[in-house]
């Protein structure tokens, strides 16, 4: 059985981390399958929105700590080399989600811990069930964060709150995560699948190329100077204005009807 299930429906690609017996802990096999799947959907013009979720009762309970335990008795130089390579090999997941010119949604239920939090933060939007909970937890196993959480978390919640979350490793609820800006939506547990599909469908029917340009603008704004950001805005707007969805959007506005975007 694969560690990652992939389903396509109405322009939505759903990637389901599939190790429910281990709370979907990120095995090496799952990592490789996720990297490949994200690459495939990024370059599939039929995919207009991506949903990342977990099989069973949890999103992802972090890295495969039991697997890590097989390495801790090696010579320290070997341990350092092994984990340096292992963490670098995780980075294509984050690069792909950020670069992807279409929205990526994390749909979280149950536990999101360690790398689970990191991956959720790297998505564009996060929707969670009322029973979901989050903990960065790296400090609990004696290591610092990875998976881009040291980049995304301070920008989402501020440096002081990020320090609290990382240094204490406490568990907090979905509602608390929403209140501090980590996630976007909290829905009744029994409605998570339905609400996730509704959100993904709304995005999949939207102006996909526009979403890609918007993602690129917002993410580059975290590091850009003012003038260069305005230049990028102008270039992105002009690019969008030359495409089908702009023509449809303007025409629909003038005709007082709902636009029907084709994503180009």
Task: Tag the structure with descriptive keywords.
2 domains; 3-stranded mixed sheet; 6-stranded mixed sheet; 11 helices; 2-enoyl-CoA Hydratase, Chain A, domain 1; 264 residues; alpha/beta; 9 strands
According to CATH, what is the class of the largest domain? Alpha Beta
Assigned CATH architecture of the largest domain:
Alpha-Beta Complex
Count of DSSP H/I helices: 11
Strand content: 5-15%
In the sheet with the most strands, the strands line up as 1-2-3-4-6-9
User: Got a strand count?
Assistant: 9
Radius of gyration: 19 Å
Strand count, sense and barrel status of the largest sheet are: 6 strands, mixed
CATH fold-level name of the largest domain: 2-enoyl-CoA Hydratase, Chain A, domain 1
Mean pLDDT: 95
Number of domains: 2
Distance between the termini: 36 Å
**Looking at the chains present, what oligomeric state does this protein adopt?**
single chain
Briefly say what this structure is.
Helix content is 49%, strand content 15%. The protein has helices at residues 28-42, 65-68, 76-99, 115-122, 149-157, 159-168, 174-179, 192-204, 208-221, 226-241, 244-254; strands at residues 4-9, 12-17, 49-54, 104-108, 111-113, 125-129, 133-135, 172-173, 185-187.
Structural summary, described in words:
The protein has 264 residues and is an alpha/beta fold. The protein folds into 2 domains: 4-204, 2-enoyl-CoA Hydratase, Chain A, domain 1 (Alpha-Beta Complex); 208-254. The chain is 49% helix and 15% strand. The chain contains 11 helices and 9 strands. It has helices at residues 28-42, 65-68, 76-99, 115-122, 149-157, 159-168, 174-179, 192-204, 208-221, 226-241, 244-254; strands at residues 4-9, 12-17, 49-54, 104-108, 111-113, 125-129, 133-135, 172-173, 185-187. The strands form 2 sheets. It has a 6-stranded mixed sheet, sandwiched between helices. α1 (28-42) packs parallel to α3, α4 (115-122) packs across α5 and α9 (208-221) runs antiparallel to α10 (226-241). The model has no long low-confidence stretch (mean pLDDT 95).
């Amino acid at each position: 059985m694969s560690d990652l299930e992939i389903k396509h429906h109405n322009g939505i690609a759903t990637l389901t981390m599939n190790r429910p017996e281990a709370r979907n802990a990120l095995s090496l096999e799952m990592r490789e399958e996720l990297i490949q799947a994200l690459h495939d959907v990024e370059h599939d013009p039929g995919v207009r929105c991506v949903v990342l979720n977990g099989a069973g009762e949890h999103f992802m309970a972090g890295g495969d700590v039991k697997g890590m335990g097989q390495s801790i008795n090696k010579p320290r130089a070997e341990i350092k080399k092994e984990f340096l390579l292992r963490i670098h090999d995780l980075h294509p997941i984050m690069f792909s989600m950020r670069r992807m010119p279409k929205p990526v949604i994390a749909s979280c239920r149950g536990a999101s811990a360690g790398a689970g939090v990191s991956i959720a933060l790297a998505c564009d939007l996060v929707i969670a069930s009322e029973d979901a909970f989050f903990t960065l937890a790296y400090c609990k196993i004696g290591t610092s964060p990875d998976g881009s959480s040291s980049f995304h978390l301070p920008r989402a919640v501020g440096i002081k709150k990020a320090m609290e979350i990382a240094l204490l490793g406490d568990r907090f609820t979905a509602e608390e995560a929403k209140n501090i800006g980590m996630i976007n939506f909290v829905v009744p547990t029994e409605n998570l699948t339905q609400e996730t599909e509704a959100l993904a469908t709304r995005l999949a029917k939207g102006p996909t190329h526009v979403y890609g340009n918007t993602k690129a603008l917002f993410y580059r704004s975290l590091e850009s100077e003012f003038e260069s950001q305005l230049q990028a805005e102008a270039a992105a707007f002009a690019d969008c204005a030359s495409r089908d969805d702009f023509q449809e959007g303007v025409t629909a506005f003038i005709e007082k009807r709902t636009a029907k975007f084709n994503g180009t």
